[in-house]
Amino acid sequence: VIAIADQDGDPNSQNDDIWITYTLWIGTEVEKEYNLNLKIAENTSFYHVMEVASQLNPTFNFKADDSSVMGHFITEIAGVANNETNSTYWMIYILPRRPRKDSPPTDKDLSPVGVDSIEVQENKHYLFWYKYVKF
């Protein structure tokens, strides 16, 4: 799926548009994978990218808690909710290439900031991975 949208969601705006990939992996062993290629305004917040993606493909629907001082905390994507009991959470990675199951990202690829503070950049790949997290 390819979409064109700017920071305000105007599908006709072409100024400073860039290509990014938004991928979902579900499961520590990656049982399911979903991908979207998006053309969107550079420096758009990743939260806005998530809003656009959910409009294009219901698989990318999500829920977020916006009561955090750090901005939106993603609690569910694709109908799969964070599970404190099993210590499985949605974690976001920023990658220089499309994610591969045979060479998964490591903690060094985790975003140091939340979705509101991530400004998308040209040819970057954004992975939300629902996986076991050891704290």
Describe the structure.
The protein contains 1 helix and 8 strands, in the order E-E-E-H-E-E-E-E-E. By secondary structure, the protein is mostly beta strands. The chain has one domain: Ferric Hydroxamate Uptake Protein, Chain A, domain 1 (Beta Complex). Strands 1-3-2-8-7 form a 5-stranded mixed sheet. Residues 49-94 form the Transcobalamin-like C-terminal domain. One of its GO terms (molecular function) is cobalamin binding. It holds the Pfam family DUF4430. This is Transcobalamin-like C-terminal domain-containing protein.
List the helices and strands and how they pair.
Elements: E1 2-5, E2 17-26, E3 32-41, H1 46-56, E4 62-65, E5 73-77, E6 80-81, E7 88-95, E8 125-132
Parallel strand pairs: 1-3, 2-8
Antiparallel strand pairs: 2-3, 4-5, 5-6, 7-8
Write a short abstract of this structure.
The protein has 135 residues and is mostly beta strands.
Shape: globular
Which percent bin holds the helix content? under 10%
Whole-Å distance between the termini? 35 Å
Number of DSSP helical runs: 1
- What is the CA-atom radius of gyration, in angstroms? 14 Å
Strand/helix succession? EEEHEEEEE
SSE-based structural type: mainly beta
Strand content: 35-45%
**Low-confidence sequence ranges:** 4-9
Instruction: State the major sheet.
Output: 5 strands, mixed
Name the average pLDDT. Answer: 91
Indicate the CATH class: Mainly Beta
Strand order of the largest sheet: 1-3-2-8-7
> Count of DSSP E strands?
8
How many distinct domains?
Answer: 1
Assembly type: single chain
CATH topology: Ferric Hydroxamate Uptake Protein, Chain A, domain 1
CATH architecture level-2 label: Beta Complex
